[in-house]
Task: structure prediction
Amino acid sequence: MGISILGMGRYVPDQVLKNDDFTRFIETDDEWIRTRTGIIERPMAGWEPTWYMGKQAALRAIEAAGIDPAKIGLVISCTATSDFHTPSMASVIQHEIGAISAAAFDMNAACSGFVYATDTARRFLETDDTLKYVLVVATEALSRFLDFNDRSSCILFGDGAAAVVLEKSDKLYSSALCSDGSGASLLCARALSVAPEVAQDKEFNDPFPKAPLHKLQQNGKEVYKFAVQALPKSFELAAEKVSITKDDIDWFVPHQANIRIIETAAKKLDAPMEKFIVTLDHYGNTSSASIPLALCESIEKGIIKRGQKLALIGFGAGLTYGGIILEY
Ligand code: UT7
Result:
């Protein structure tokens, strides 16, 4: 069983941080950021809550789908940057959009979150006949977790949200979800409450970076090496289940982390870069929101059309990765 994308919506904050803006507080320059990452500017949420951005994207997705929010049976929010440890973003958004009959929960697979959540949505639709619509909301405020003294990470990320209304269908669908937890310490942000005790206790042999607490820490080089393997593998694992090749795919929608990662993945797959959707130049890396933002923008611009075959491929902290092949 497959899924049908009934409607999508996106929301990004008005405030934008351009590459040159970083030169006010770190040693960097526009050329380094452009050539090493492909990013030119990224939206920044300020104190706009994560749930608020998700709500705006969800309302737009519901409008595009033309459905009654009361008929949504499940809301899944795939955020790594929740406003709260509890309640979930999904519960807050469920109330805000009037999805009064929906179950709601968050899931965190970091930047692979949208792939994980969409595949989870499909499994719910397959096993529950009473479920008509599922809403997946990817909403992220990375800027709140960034160490703006760390020039190798703070220039990479942006804030934003995108949402999709799904229903079951018999269209083409395949997926593969993967994780390699041995790389967990390569990209992480500690929760404040437990960090000092755990980090200092020798018995735990804690492998995670020590400071600064609750800020994003990453080993960029190692994550890069992982990413250029994970992206093509995500496609190949999903593709082999349905005997599809890269030539059957109209559009690859990869996680938007670094243009060099996408170019390397395209080379490894022997697929032309023209088939890869790229939006990181103006969004930066918005974690779980990056794939649906790219997808939604391309649909709105008429680049991605009904009937075309898509490969959504992601990777992120965890280290997680995964792919979905579907027909739009
Ligand atoms: O969703 C997943 C999120 N994470 C990723 O996808 C990250 C994957 N990794 C990357 O994208 C890249 O590794 C980075 C963009 C983070 C770094 O690019 P790189 O080409 O691997 O640079 P590097 O770490 O090898 O650093 C090269 C030089 C260093 O200087 P020295 O030691 O050669 O003097 C860095 O200190 O570039 C320096 N550098 C910068 N210079 C100017 C690092 N960041 C900056 C900066 N501006 N912002």
Summary: The longest strand covers residues 159-169. The mean pLDDT is 95. The chain has ten helices and 13 strands.
